[in-house]
UniProtKB/TrEMBL annotation:
Known cofactor(s): FAD
Superkingdom, natural source: Bacteria
Organism: Roseibium hamelinense
GO terms for MF: deoxyribodipyrimidine photo-lyase activity; DNA binding; FAD binding
Positions bound to FAD: Y42, F91, E94, V95, F96, W97, R98, G99, Y100, F101, D195, G196, D197
GO CC, any one term: cytoplasm
Residues in Cryptochrome/DNA photolyase FAD-binding domain copies: 91-219
Protein name per its UniProtKB record: Deoxyribodipyrimidine photo-lyase
One record GO biological process: circadian regulation of gene expression
Keywords: FAD, Flavoprotein, Lyase
Length: 425
């Protein structure tokens, strides 16, 4: 047993606001606390940002769902036990937005590869161009003079979390008022958000800038900020009077979703690989794969060429650690990690040899750093005679194929998806 258990290593608490602990128990407790409000109360109050000390009007479940310490299907089932589909419609749709973004990016991986290349280029520009560096540093340090924006910049770094409406305002001010590259703003979020997700984060910033839904932007307005922060920020001054859409070269054509791997149908000893993509291993569909050991690897440091935020790094570490503890308890197997590694192939070959197996099973990694690491390791694993199997959850299989255009197309399929999950009425 070599799981990291020092709580200080994944302490995500702060002196301000809501505390997020990267454990299954904390996720379940938060879900139960929120469920009574998941119906009409959520629909009427969800757009209000009352500040980091009051998250009573929203679920605050996204860090847990992002790392799959808590599953979408679990959240939907618990919600529908307490509320009708109509009264909880807004919250149910909010759960599906994450799956929509992940499916959309699977269909258009160019959006990710282009964003990654842009961030690399802009990170070098920050070193060479004093004007860009000064404006950027003022923004990320909360020193622009725009009170709401500066407060949100501090809140993000200090807590690892922002209300969704604040994220939209922040992105709009970053792009249209400060005139900074959207990619650097998306990178700032991705490095600090506890729920930082390649698809949700990248595509949300593209949406605000008018790239996701062509020509449709989101403009931060002083009156809207005043209303939906309950006048915590009263009519902030200096906001851009308009939000003209950004432009770019067209993305490549839509591609089919990558296939998941077939699991063995007969008894086959396997090493489980737990990553920050899915930390709930005992609910993976393993078929005939029989877990004999588990290891945890982190790709958090690969999110950006710039420095990762402490809170986001700690939460990802703690979530993978939690997944390893679950694997040990449920399967009764030896576990190691979590650890960061620049050479996933070498780490996995070593772990497979220690477990005396030639099969590694992991959760399907959607587009992002974990997938990048697995794709890089795969040829080396094959050369060593090791088979890497990625298993995908039914929720993703049912949701992603409908994420080919705007969210509306998927929204119309929600009742059918719920039926497919055994949650229809």
């Amino acid at each position: 047993m070599t799981i990291m258990t020092d709580a200080a290593l994944f302490d995500t608490t702060s002196d301000r606001g809501f505390a997020f602990l990267p454990t299954r128990r904390a996720a379940e407790a938060r879900l139960q606390a929120f469920l009574p409000s998941a119906g009409k109360a959520y629909a009427s109050k969800r757009n209000y940002d009352f500040g980091p000390d009051d998250r009573s009007n929203i679920s605050a479940l996204s860090p847990y769902i992002r790392h799959r310490l808590l599953l979408e299907q679990e959240v939907l089932k618990a919600t529908l036990v307490k509320h009708s589909p109509s009264s909880a419609e807004k919250f149910i749709q909010e759960v599906f937005w994450r799956g929509y973004f992940k499916g959309w990016l699977e269909h258009r991986p160019d959006a990710w590869t282009r964003y990654r290349a842009d961030v690399q280029h802009l990170a070098r520009q920050l070193e060479d161009h004093g004007g860009l560096r000064k404006a950027y540093e003022q923004a990320v340090s909360g020193a622009t003079g725009i009170d709401c924006f500066d407060a949100w910049a501090h809140e993000l770094v200090e807590t690892g979390y922002l209300h969704n409406h604040a994220r939209m305002w922040f992105a709009s001010i970053w792009i249209f008022t400060l005139g900074l590259p959207w990619q650097l703003g998306a990178d700032f979020f991705y490095r600090h958000l506890l729920d930082g997700d390649p698809a949700s984060n990248t595509l949300s910033w593209r949406w605000v800038g008018g790239l996701h839904t062509k020509g449709k932007t989101y403009q931060a307005r002083a009156s809207n900020i005043d209303t939906y922060t309950a006048s915590r920020f009263s009519y902030p001054q200096g906001l851009a009077p308009s939000a003209p859409p950004l432009d770019e070269e067209p993305l490549g054509p839509r591609v089919p979703i990558r296939l998941a791997d077939m699991v063995p149908d007969t008894d086959s000893p396997a090493l489980l690989l737990i990553t920050e993509e899915d930390c709930h291993p005992h609910t993976w569909q393993l078929g005939g794969a029989r877990p004999v050991a588990a290891t945890g690897l982190l790709a958090t440091s690969k999110r950006s060429p710039l420095e990762m935020g402490e809170k986001a790094s700690a939460f990802a570490f703690g979530a993978v650690n939690e997944g390893l503890e679950q694997a040990q308890q449920v399967f009764g197997i030896e576990c190691s990690g979590p650890k960061s590694s620049d050479d996933w192939a070498a780490s996995l070959i070593e772990a497979a040899a220690a477990a005396n197996t030639e099969t590694i099973v992991t959760a399907f990694a959607a587009i992002g750093p974990v997938q990048d690491q697995l794709e890089g390791a795969k040829p080396h694993l094959e050369a060593a005679g090791i088979r890497l199997i990625q298993v995908r959850r039914p929720y993703d299989d049912l949701t992603w194929p409908h994420a080919t255009a705007g969210f509306f197309k998927l929204k119309t399929k929600i009742p059918k998806i719920l039926e497919g999950l055994g949650l229809g009425r």
